[in-house]
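Aim 2, interim progress: modelling of the calcium ion-bound target.
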Amino acid sequence: MKRILVIEDEPQMLLGLRDNLELEGYEVATAADGEEGLTKAAAFQPDLVLLDVMLPRKHGFDVCRELRARSSATPIVMLTARSAETDKVLGLELGADDYVTKPFSITELLARVRAVLRRTGGRPPAQDVVRIGEIEVDFKLHQAKRGKARVEFTAREFDLLRYFVQHTGQVVTREQILNEVWGYEEFPTTRTIDNFVAKLRQKIERAPHAPEHILTIHGSGYKFVG
Ligand code: CA
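Predicted structure of the complex, ligand included:
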């Protein structure tokens, strides 16, 4: 049974989310403010955190940062209200895996939860730390380094890189990547995949225009070689 922690200060919203998630078969813990959320996250060890942005005692963005700083790889879905919050989460500077804008339908929310759990709950890489050329990637800590310098990846870039690493030596099509990394609820174009691959190459390849790790297989897709 997957465990979900809901951190939300509006009582009705909190109860509604808890009831619906329990009906879906999840084990649910709740917290009504940011501090309680952090305490519960440590005690409950959730598989996913639903995190409101505007919270008393500790802002949702700070909760998100602290969860990540604790080296938690637990997926986080932010519940945002304002467009400015959405922009920030969209930048995914905070390490959130996805966001849902209020007001949302419960159907939409449950679909997002399923998609994020599927995307992040797949087979983990054989080891947490993987060396790719000059880059060392720690999939558990969501960190990457070139020598001593940090290399910043967004949550989605990490997901894509993890997918490539899990399929080392195999040709993967853009459609497979769309289904496995983005999920069927979202509809990016195959062009989106190419853009993300270009960004990954900028970060991990010695010469992005002559890639040695993420190879383009013309007419098929991509192949990652370690
Ligand atoms: Ca709130």
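The longest strand covers residues 3-7. The helical segments are 11-23, 34-44, 60-69, 83-91, 106-120, 155-166, 174-182, 190-204.
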